[in-house]
UniProtKB/TrEMBL annotation:
It catalyses: (2S,6S)-2,6-diaminopimelate = meso-2,6-diaminopimelate. The record marks H176, E225 as: Could be important to modulate the pK values of the two catalytic cysteine residues. GO terms for biological process: lysine biosynthetic process via diaminopimelate. Substrate binds at N17, Q50, N70, G81, N82, N174, N207, E225, R226, G235, T236. GO terms for molecular function: diaminopimelate epimerase activity. Catalyzes the stereoinversion of LL-2,6-diaminopimelate (L,L-DAP) to meso-diaminopimelate (meso-DAP), a precursor of L-lysine and an essential component of the bacterial peptidoglycan. The active site is at C80 (proton donor), C234 (proton acceptor). Homodimer. The gene is dapF. It is an enzyme of class 5 (isomerase). Pathway: Amino-acid biosynthesis; L-lysine biosynthesis via DAP pathway; DL-2,6-diaminopimelate from LL-2,6-diaminopimelate: step 1/1. Keywords: Amino-acid biosynthesis, Cytoplasm, Isomerase, Lysine biosynthesis. This is Diaminopimelate epimerase. It comes from Sphaerotilus natans subsp. natans DSM 6575. It is found in: Cytoplasm.
C-alpha cells in the first residue's frame, strides 16, 4: 500500500465565504476534481466554498498566479473577490512576499491587491464586462426593459415559465445575474437561485444575486453562487450588483454592501474605470490533509 504525504493547508474566510488555501509556489500541485470535492466537503473532507491554489506567475508582469475551484463541484472558475483578499493575507503571512501591493494572474485576467493599514484588503477588480456575448448571455428573442438606459432582461423558469424574474447581466470575469428584491430576508433565494444558476441562456451557468437597495450608498445582498449554492458573501457578486445598480440609476459611486457574513465597500466611477472592493480577510487555522488517491 502506498501512503500519500500529508499536504499543508490554511483555512481562511472573507465574510464567512470560506476557503482552503494551498501553497503551490514551492512544488507544483495538481488536484483532480474528486480530490477538490473531497477538500470542499464539509462532512467527509475539510469544508470550503472554494479552494484556492497559489502558484508562481506564468508571465513577467505579475507576482503570483492563483487558481480558484468551486468546492462543491471541483470546477475551476475565473474569479473570486473574497478569495482574492484572503490570497493577499495568505502570501504575506506565509512569507511569500512582504509587499503591500501585489499583482496576481487569474484564469482570464490580472488583478492588483493592496493591504491597507487597518488590515483590510483593497482589490482592483478590473472593469466589469457588459458585452453580453462575453458574459456569456444569450439574449436572442428577448426584449429588455430599460431603466436609466441600462437593460433588465426577463428570465423565465424553464420548468415553470409563468415564474419570471428580471435580471441585470454583468461579468466580473465570472458571470452574474442580479435581480432587485424588496427585502433580502424574504427573497426566495433557495427556490429561484438554482434555476437562474442553470438557466440555458447562460451557457457557462451564472451566479444569481438578490439585491435590496437601502439607500443610494447602502445595499443588502444575497448570492446563490454557481457551483456552491448560497454563501454568506460573494465578493464578485457584490461588485456586479453595485455595477448593475449604478448603471440602472439606483446607486452612487461608493456603496457599502451588507451580506449575511459582514460588510464590503465597493466603488465604481462608471464605464472605463475599474471596480474597487475593500473588505476583511481572516485566517482561521492551519492543518495537514491526506488526500484520497486521484482516480485515473
Ligand atoms: N465567492 C466568490 C465567487 C466564487 C466563484 C463563483 N462561485 C463562480 O462560480 O463564479 C467571490 O467572493 O467572488
Amino acid at each position: 500500500m502506498t501512503t500519500r504525504p500529508p499536504l499543508p493547508f490554511t483555512k481562511m474566510h472573507g465574510l464567512g465565504n470560506d476557503f482552503v488555501v494551498f501553497d503551490a509556489t514551492r512544488a507544483p500541485l495538481a488536484l483532480s476534481e474528486d480530490q477538490l470535492r473531497f477538500v470542499g466537503d464539509r462532512r467527509f473532507g475539510i469544508g470550503a466554498d472554494q479552494i484556492l491554489v497559489v502558484e508562481r506567475p506564468q508571465g513577467p508582469d505579475a507576482d503570483f498566479r492563483y487558481r480558484i475551484f468551486n468546492g462543491a463541484t471541483g470546477e475551476e472558475v475565473e474569479h473570486c473577490g473574497n478569495g482574492a483578499r484572503c490570497f493577499m493575507r495568505f502570501v504575506r503571512e506565509q512569507g511569500l512576499t512582504d509587499r503591500d501591493e501585489v499583482r496576481v494572474e487569474t484564469m482570464n485576467n490580472r488583478i492588483v491587491l493592496r493591504m491597507q493599514a487597518d488590515g483590510r484588503v483593497t482589490v482592483d477588480m478590473n472593469q466589469p464586462i457588459l458585452e453580453l456575448e462575453r458574459v456569456p448571455f444569450d439574449p436572442s428573442g428577448l426584449q429588455p426593459r430599460l431603466e436609466n438606459g441600462a437593460e433588465l432582461w426577463p428570465l423565465a423558469n424553464p420548468a415553470a415559465p409563468q415564474e419570471q424574474v428580471e435580471v441585470a447581466v454583468v461579468s466580473m470575469g465570472n458571470p452574474h445575474a442580479v435581480q432587485r428584491v424588496d427585502d433580502v430576508d424574504t427573497a426566495p433565494v433557495a427556490q429561484v437561485g438554482p434555476w437562474v444558476e442553470s438557466h440555458p441562456r447562460f451557457p457557462r451557468k451564472v451566479n444569481a444575486g438578490f439585491l435590496q437597495v437601502v439607500a443610494r450608498d447602502r445595499v443588502r445582498l444575497r448570492v446563490f453562487e454557481r457551483g456552491a449554492g448560497e454563501t454568506l458573501a460573494c465578493g464578485t457578486g457584490a461588485c456586479a450588483a453595485v455595477v448593475a445598480g449604478i448603471r440602472l440609476g439606483w446607486l452612487d459611486a461608493r456603496v457599502d454592501v451588507e451580506t449575511r457574513g459582514g460588510e464590503l465597500t465597493i466603488e465604481w466611477d462608471g464605464p472605463g474605470s475599474s471596480v474597487r472592493m475593500t473588505g476583511p480577510a481572516v485566517t482561521v487555522f492551519q492543518g495537514e490533509v491526506v488526500l484520497p488517491a486521484a482516480s485515473c
